[in-house]
Known about the structure:
mainly beta, Leucine-rich repeat, LRR (right-handed beta-alpha superhelix), single chain, 122 residues, two-stranded parallel sheet
Amino acid sequence: MLLPASKQWQQLGILRAQDNSLTSISDELMVQFPVLYELILTGNKITVLPDFTPLASSLKDLDVSQNNISEINEHLSSLVNLETLDLSNNYIDTFPTSIIESLPKLNRLSLSGNKMKSFGLL
Length: 122
């Protein structure tokens, strides 16, 4: 999913791209949305999460449920203002608690419908 660079994107607060056939989200895309606070990517075919670091101070709600994600990367740790994280119905088998510890405002985490074997330190 590549969008042309535009100043209009810099004011976008909500991006909903659910129920498409997206297989990936480029790291470069995150830079285009510096004030994005809600990102809904449910119902796609995403296998790897992008680097969310450019959204560290703005993103509050992230929904990547119903995708093909099997691993959680440490980029999630940068989202210090994240309140809601929905990773349900993917293929995740391990979730490191270090990520939760780095998200002080997280008040809702959904991991249902995964292949969880371990919830803890990696």
